[in-house]
Recover the amino acids of this structure.
């Protein structure tokens, strides 16, 4: 990942234990959560040298309609108790996860799947992902792929940004069975 995206790619920045936690604390838990949830910048998450905020101008920006101040306060209260180490450790453990799942390399997902993403999602717009999904390569790995939905103007947290639309997609998918 470092070779492709550089040292400031979020996964690379999260590797040094304590450093990312200190940056998170420096930004402020509530501000960081707001930054992450409301980021509208497509492409790989490259973090600015001065901190972890994905969206540096959020302090004065109003919250989007799908994120209330109460929600933000609630999320922040949970991370104030636990910190970010648990979540960051997921990224620090990617090599071991890769090793542990090696026996399933090349395995197909053989259940029916409806894949929903946003056209501003940082994963969908990262190097090669959009092409992988749209070229038919995804369908080879997921042969029972029923549908791919790319929501316009929607970023990474599509289940929150467009909760009703996501619920409708899930309901329509489930009732087929």
């Amino acid at each position: 990942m470092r070779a492709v995206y550089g040292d400031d790619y979020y996964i690379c920045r999260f590797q040094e234990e304590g450093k990312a936690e200190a940056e998170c604390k420096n930004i402020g838990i509530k501000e960081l959560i707001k930054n992450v949830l409301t980021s509208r910048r497509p492409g790989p998450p490259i973090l600015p040298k001065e901190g972890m905020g994905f969206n540096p101008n959020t302090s004065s920006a109003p919250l989007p309609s799908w994120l209330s101040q109460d929600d933000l306060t609630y999320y922040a209260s949970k991370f104030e108790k636990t910190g970010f180490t648990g979540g960051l450790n997921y990224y620090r453990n990617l090599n071991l996860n890769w090793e542990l799942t090696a026996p399933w390399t090349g395995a197909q997902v053989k259940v029916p799947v409806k894949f929903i993403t946003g056209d501003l999602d940082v994963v969908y717009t990262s190097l090669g992902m959009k092409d992988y999904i749209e070229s038919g390569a995804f369908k080879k790995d997921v042969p029972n792929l029923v549908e791919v939905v790319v929501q316009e103007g929607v970023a990474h947290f599509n289940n929150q940004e467009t909760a009703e639309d996501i619920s409708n997609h899930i309901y329509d998918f489930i009732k087929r069975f």
User: Anything to note?
Assistant: The chain has a mean pLDDT of 91. The first strand starts at residue 113 and ends at 118.
